[in-house]
Design a protein that fits this description.
The chain is α/β, with parallel strands linked by helices. The chain is built from 16 helices and 14 strands. The strands form four sheets. Strands 5-6-4-7-9-11-14 form a seven-stranded parallel beta sheet, sandwiched between helices. The protein is elongated. The relative contact order is 0.11.
Length: about 450
């Protein structure tokens, strides 16, 4: 006899604590919105991208539809006779609304009166969301399966990382994954919680057609340099209570505990983009840039050749779906998914004495990701280095620009270590400027 299939809500015990930090009267959260993700959201909002015209389906427990920010933009599919597990669904929906306040939320309640998700209801809700015209589906729940890196699981195919393409062999035994892949094949972007157990992954996040979401600790383990620039390690540590099988991670803000809460943030951010079909290419480029940054660390020890690192960065740039030029202006997608490539590749070019190429790339990067302290500081460092051999008027102008950039980088980071390196760099540069010179 086949055992019943089971779904669980992830981080249900944290939802109440999270909601205590939300002020429904003012529609505001009491946690700091900082670092790379919220910088990218701010870039999108500055371009008047608020999720207009996008239908975002949230499949969860029950929802408190009396909360004003939900009531104005949602419609609810409610099969349960009485609401259950209201806190989790409400928290998830409110996070999505914070990022994409003008997206239409389609809220699907799939729990029984005890607050437990009903497996078949989740599958039916995915199908209903597609029929209702959803563009994005967010699932902060799922069914646990062991995470394996070998080929012994799921029809001979290991848990597959997101590629934007279904892998029928990997999910042939899972109706939930099949439902998500069917949605993907109809043009719907599906994001799902990877799960909060290290050695497991949730279905449907294990599907290669679904973007598995999670958090990371720290802020991409930024390594400040002596000149005030920085290199960003793209593979920062995962929280111990999180699946090792995760496609994309956000910096974990204080109080946002669990992959349940990363999922609606990422899903809602996708509602701010012009072209969600570029997502697999963005992640492929990010993974390659991550590999390049890890490899670069090994160069001084002789364990990695400089030429190999250069090739990895060039490949990452080739995979990146956007080709920006000076004057293109901000890009929300590149602010989030391209910051590691821009910051680290630019730093690599500077470190290998390709100052002109570094400056060209980083000038574009500062336009594309105007709130990234990493790209801003690296451009400042490049201008500082490039001023050494410049004639006096140009040298002063470059140093003035560097001062202005370091001051701007200080505005966009709260990390004490980075702030200290930026201030040290500022002191060095200001000492080089002629008396009475002001930054540009």
């Amino acid at each position: 006899m086949t055992p019943p299939r089971v779904c669980t809500l992830e981080s249900a015990d944290s939802a109440e604590a999270l909601l205590e930090r939300y002020d429904p009267g003012h529609g505001t959260w009491g946690y700091p919105k900082k670092e790379r993700f919220w910088d990218a959201v701010s870039v999108a909002h500055s371009l008047e991208r608020w999720g207009q015209g996008v239908r975002l389906a949230v499949i969860d427990g029950s929802f408190d539809v009396a909360v004003p920010s939900l009531a104005r933009q949602m419609r609810v599919h409610r099969p349960a006779p009485t609401p259950a597990a209201v806190a989790h669904g409400t928290a998830v929906a409110l996070l999505a609304s914070e990022v994409a306040p003008q997206a239409e939320l389609l809220l699907y309640e799939v729990c029984d009166p005890s607050g437990t998700p009903v497996y078949d209801e989740v599958c039916r809700a995915i199908e209903a969301a597609v029929d209702d015209g959803a563009h994005i589906i967010s699932l902060s729940l799922g069914s646990h399966v062991p995470y394996r890196t070998d080929a012994d699981l799921h029809g001979g195919v290991a848990s597959a990382f997101f590629s934007g393409e279904p892998n029928p062999r990997a999910v042939e035994d899972c109706p939930l994954c099949r439902a998500a892949e069917a949605a993907h094949e109809k043009g719907v972007t599906v994001v799902a919680a990877a799960g909060n157990s290290r050695d497991f992954v949730l279905c449907p996040a294990r599907s290669s057609a679904v973007m598995g979401c999670g958090f990371q600790t720290g802020t991409h383990q930024v390594r400040p340099t002596d000149d005030g620039g920085s290199t960003t390690e793209a593979g920062a540590d995962l929280p111990t209570r999180q699946s090792r099988r995760v496609d994309f991670t956000l910096e974990q803000a204080d109080g946002l505990l669990g992959t349940s809460f990363a999922t609606p943030l990422i899903g809602a951010f996708l509602a701010l983009l012009n072209d969600r079909s570029e997502l697999p290419a963005f992640l492929a480029s990010l993974n390659q840039a991550s590999a390049a940054s890890f490899a670069e660390v090994l160069i001084p020890s002789g364990m990695m050749e400089l030429a190999t690192v250069r090739t990895l960065y060039e490949q990452a740039a080739g995979l990146h779906p956007h080709r920006h030029a000076t004057g293109d202006g901000p890009c929300p997608a590149c602010s989030l998914f391209g910051e590691v490539l821009y910051a680290n590749y630019g730093r690599f070019l500077l470190n290998t004495h390709q100052t002109a190429a570094a400056e060209s790339l980083l000038r574009i990067a500062v336009e594309v990701a105007p709130r990234s302290p990493n790209v801003i500081a690296n451009l400042a460092a490049t201008l500082w280095h490039g001023s050494a051999d410049a004639p006096p008027p140009e040298r002063t102008a470059r140093l003035q620009q560097a001062v202005a950039l370091y001051r701007r980088a200080l505005e966009y980071t709260s990390a004490p270590e980075r702030q200290a390196t930026y201030r040290t760099a500022l002191a060095h540069i200001e000492a080089l400027l002629p008396p009475g010179t002001t930054p540009q």
